[in-house]
């Protein structure tokens, strides 16, 4: 099919994020067109960031799930049992593929639902259920098939990671930081599912089942959270070069797959110790491979909806094999040589002759082309009378920088050519 | 097909790595069985880490490529033109899917080869051509289809990153560090392709073409390398809070896709600034998503061969849809509760009453169960006479730690329960 018609159940943040993504699908790289047959949610007239009135409303998710016009059922309702489970079962039994972001449902009933999907010859997909926008499910399932995984570990709950990061940063105790996080929207009004470690446990159970071809048995996962972490734990650990974080891990042992969520202390130079705030990160260790780490936004409407779209895009029948993932209807762009109107700050290194006025002459030459100095270090001159100067400029265009560089080359006090290196802005 | 029969051309590090992976394929998560029909390389009798004599030898790669028994042709010869290109063309024309690790071939002839693959209705796959074991090609092509990518940037050449990292660390100049790197095998005898930035340019051109649905035009890529970096650049930048690294980037601009490889200065808290040594990392920035970063081994026989296997595994006809990526022949493992014979170091926090001998009593109680102290900090007592103590232990079993913890709880000088947090060993 070159067109996929969706039934979407659940219109919270992620559901609305998906609808707004569908409404501007021309900008995406989907293999075909996505249409919405109908939507369903608990409450029809809640305030939402998208106008859902233009889509056909279904009071009952299961009725939508088995509707004749629906090619794919998208479940964004949440909850491991109840209406979400019933609607997903109904869709699968009706021969409709299901895309879900529901980690509790998959962690607890995933294998039963997989069997049901196989019986009915359809796909069950849940990239969005683990780590939001980080595509770890497909990486483990489809890409890392040529390795033997030993361990999957990571930071899988942004709320917990924000809390421990922020406690140490601010010097405030757990209750204070949690309250602030709730005010800022970083923690739910009822944060139990997050802070107890249960949310991370759902995710690591799913990942472990894929990575180790293990039967998913959620009762065997040991779960603890961050509720009992106290500020002195973090402060004293810091003095011993350690960061305490909530770590989810699945390990292959001789006895079987051990899966747990618990606080661990990580040396500050540990790859996972550097992950601060609400980011998620997953590290896959495997022999012959070493370790591959994926990091990104683990929650949020945009990232999670993007992951749902990634799954939906796999449900189009491939009409042509494209090595570069391009479909006929895609806007094909062209490569262009770098433009000089790009702007950035620059790192400059100059050798100046040790004469009075040399530095003033340099900064004037830069200023003549609109290049101004943000930071500067100058060392004392070497035996040859050359004095090393390094500068961080304010932002300017590459064109201005080129012209300034030409002018600087002409100065009598400048030894060797000036070194010009663009600075990339901070990115976490 | 439940069986895939390979013709493998090129028996260098990666080719031999692939053969040894195939020889122990039962440990992997392949959807079926892989067989080797024949092998080909420039020299038959070179010393190799695997015994290739047991496989049928072909003097000519193209003859192997079109052999009737070959289902998939694997090209690991290298070089953008010449025999590699001819053999790949021959395979595609004969209706055989091709898996290659050849970045120069794909960067320069990728779209011509894609057209040839499409004409013949077969797949052309090149996960291993970019960033070795890091599965960025499939992530960009298949997972991140629900986002609009703005920028792809990264550290795509381990040799260059090792050189700049090591110059700053050791305080040695470029030539010295390069020579040492060549001795250690981190740089090739002829390092030109790496240090000129050309290798990274091949990779970023491929990634940009996928990410932006852009026609691959390698002539438009601007390329510079690390050959001219001098130690004072790195040292002075460091004093201004910057790390200089070779950065490959593709950016979507109004004029088109700008693709370049050049040294850039990154603030020390920039995500890419932390990548040291020979690792590769790729950061994908997209609206609605934010940024997702993948990090891992960018080269080496094991990681690259694993990536080749990942591609091969996609060429099996799916016989059953499995949400968890499990095939019938896979060893199915089970989840197991955590075992107490696991071993690690521990972070301990104790409140001790401020009496003489309290600390000695504590360390004796630990030692009685084989738990010994590696590092310890003790603060002066608070008004209530409680003195905070934090300990990093040497490695011991969790069972010993549990017993030691019980004994410590019984000590009269211990206030509150001892906090016990396992330490994860350093991982980069």
Structural class of chain A: alpha/beta
In terms of DSSP E residues, the strand content of chain A is 25-35%
Unreliable segments of chain A (pLDDT under 50, ≥5 consecutive)? none
Sheet bearing the most strands of chain A, described? 6 strands, parallel
What is the count of β-strands of chain A?
A: 19
CATH topology of the largest domain in chain A: Dihydrodipicolinate Reductase, domain 2
How is the secondary structure organized here?
The structure is a homodimer of 428-residue chains.
Chain A: E1 3-9, H1 13-23, E2 33-40, E3 57-58, H2 61-65, E4 72-75, H3 83-93, E5 98-100, H4 103-119, E6 124-125, H5 136-143, E7 148-155, H6 158-170, H7 174-184, H8 192-195, H9 198-211, E8 214-215, E9 222-223, H10 231-239, E10 242-253, E11 256-267, E12 279-287, E13 290-297, H11 301-313, E14 333-336, E15 343-353, H12 358-367, E16 373-378, E17 386-393, E18 396-397, H13 398-409, E19 414-423
Parallel strand pairs in A: 1-2, 1-4, 2-3, 4-5, 5-6, 9-11
Antiparallel strand pairs in A: 7-10, 7-12, 10-11, 12-13, 15-17, 15-18, 15-19, 16-17
Helix pairs in contact in A: 1-11, 3-4, 4-9, 6-7, 12-13
From the structure above, extract its key features.
13 helices, homodimer, six-stranded mixed beta sheet, Rossmann fold, 428 residues, Alpha-Beta Plaits, Dihydrodipicolinate Reductase, domain 2, six-stranded parallel beta sheet, alpha/beta
Q: What does it look like?
A:
Two copies of one chain form a homodimer. In chain A, the strands form three sheets. Chain A has a six-stranded parallel sheet, with helices on both faces. Chain A starts with a strand and ends in a 5-residue tail after the last strand. Chain A is built from 13 helices and 19 strands. Helix content of chain A is 32%, strand content 28%. Chain A folds into three domains: 3-129, NAD(P)-binding Rossmann-like Domain (Rossmann fold, 3-Layer(aba) Sandwich), CATH 3.40.50.720; 136-298, Dihydrodipicolinate Reductase, domain 2; 343-423, Alpha-Beta Plaits (2-Layer Sandwich). In chain A, helix 1 packs across helix 11 (301-313) and helix 3 (83-93) packs parallel to helix 4. The model of chain A has no long low-confidence stretch (mean pLDDT 94). The first copy, chain A, is of the alpha/beta class and 428 residues long. Chain A is globular and about 85 Å long. Chains A and B meet through helix 4, strand 6, helix 5, helix 9 and strand 8 of A and helix 4, strand 6, helix 5, helix 9 and strand 8 of B. Strand 11 (256-267) of chain A pairs parallel with strand 14 of chain B, so a sheet runs across the interface.
């Amino acid at each position: 099919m070159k067109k996929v018609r969706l039934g979407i159940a659940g219109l919270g943040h992620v559901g609305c994020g998906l609808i707004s993504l569908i409404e501007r699908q021309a900008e995406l790289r989907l293999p075909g067109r996505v249409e919405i047959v109908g939507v369903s949610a608990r409450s029809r007239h809640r305030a939402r960031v998208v106008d859902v009135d233009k889509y056909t409303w279904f009071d009952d998710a299961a009725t939508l799930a088995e509707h004749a016009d629906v090619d794919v059922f998208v479940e964004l309702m949440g909850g491991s049992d109840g209406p979400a489970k019933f609607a997903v079962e109904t869709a699968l039994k009706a021969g409709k593929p299901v895309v879900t972001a529901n980690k509790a449902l998959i962690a607890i009933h995933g294998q039963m639902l997989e069997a049901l999907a196989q019986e009915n010859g359809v796909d069950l997909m849940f990239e969005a259920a683990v780590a939001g926008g980080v595509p770890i499910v497909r990486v483990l399932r489809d890409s890392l098939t040529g390795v033997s995984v030993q361990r999957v570990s990571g930071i899988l709950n942004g709320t917990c990671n924000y809390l421990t990061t922020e406690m140490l940063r601010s010097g405030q105790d757990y209750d204070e930081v949690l309250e602030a996080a709730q005010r800022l929207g970083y923690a739910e009004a009822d944060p139990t599912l997050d802070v107890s470690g249960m949310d991370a446990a759902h995710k690591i159970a799913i990942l472990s089942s894929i990575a180790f071809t293990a039967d998913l048995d959620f009762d065997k996962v040991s779960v603890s959270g961050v509720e009992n972490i106290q500020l002195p734990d973090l402060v004293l650990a810091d003095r011993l070069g350690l960061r305490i974080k909530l770590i989810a891990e699945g390990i292959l042992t001789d006895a079987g797959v051990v899966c747990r969520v618990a606080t661990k202390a990580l040396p500050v130079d540990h790859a996972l110790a550097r992950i601060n705030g609400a980011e998620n990160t997953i590290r896959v260790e495997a022999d012959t491979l070493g370790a591959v780490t994926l990091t990104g936004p683990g929650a949020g409407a945009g990232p999670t909806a993007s992951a749902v779209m990634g799954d939906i895009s796999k449900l189009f029948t491939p009409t042509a094999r494209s090595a570069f993932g391009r479909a006929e209807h895609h806007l094909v762009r062209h490569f262009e040589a770098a433009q000089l109107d790009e702007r950035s700050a620059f790192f400059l290194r100059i050798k100046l002759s040790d004469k009075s006025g040399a530095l003033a002459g340099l900064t004037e030459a830069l200023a003549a082309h609109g290049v101004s100095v943000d930071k500067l270090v100058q060392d004392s001159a070497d035996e040859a009378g050359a004095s090393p100067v390094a500068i961080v400029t304010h932002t300017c265009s590459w064109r201005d920088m080129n012209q300034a560089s030409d002018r600087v080359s002409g100065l009598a006090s400048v030894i060797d050519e000036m070194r010009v290196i663009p600075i990339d802005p901070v990115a976490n």
